[in-house]
Amino acid sequence: MSRPFTTITTEIPSGEALSSEVDLGDWDLEAILTPAAWTTAALTFLGTTTSGGTDVSLFEDAGNEISVACAVDRYISITGTDKTAIRAIRWLTIRSGTLATPVNQAAARTLTLVLRKGQ
């Protein structure tokens, strides 16, 4: 039996590096679809387990910030360590760039999140 998929969107406003917060609920992040225009930057993640809680940057167990390469018009699969760390977060924010070097987007950018029903 296959698990259902759904999509939701989040936007990084023009001149900003952080997306709006997304409530993942009982869904797991499987992939991110990037827009046709993008100010060059990797994607990193922030999250919290409570609504309106303090977002913290997500790091994997070796101490590295969770980061995925990003380019225009891509389907970016979220797997392995990235997926495990993100699965523990209910409210997710996506950052353009890194904690040390956020990258403001030149225009509003909409990211589509592909979600799969959690187990």
Briefly characterize the structure.
The protein is mainly β. It has one helix at residues 80-87; strands at residues 5-12, 22-23, 27-33, 43-48, 56-57, 67-68, 75-77, 91-96, 109-117. Strands 2, 4, 5, 6 and 8 form a five-stranded antiparallel beta sheet that branches.
C-alpha end-to-end distance: 12 Å
The structural class is mainly beta
Q: Note the total helix count.
A: 1
Q: Please report the total strand number as a whole number.
A: 9
Structural summary, described in words:
With 119 residues, the chain is mainly beta. The protein has one domain: Jelly Rolls, CATH 2.60.120. Helices cover 7% and strands 38% of the residues. Strands 2, 4, 5, 6 and 8 form a five-stranded antiparallel sheet that branches. A four-stranded antiparallel sheet has the order 1-9-3-7. A hairpin with a 7-residue loop joins strand 4 (43-48) and strand 5 (56-57). The protein is globular.
Features:
119 residues; mainly beta; 7% helix; globular
Tell me the layout of helices and strands:
Elements: E1 5-12, E2 22-23, E3 27-33, E4 43-48, E5 56-57, E6 67-68, E7 75-77, H1 80-87, E8 91-96, E9 109-117
Antiparallel strand pairs: 1-9, 2-8, 3-7, 3-9, 4-5, 4-6, 4-8
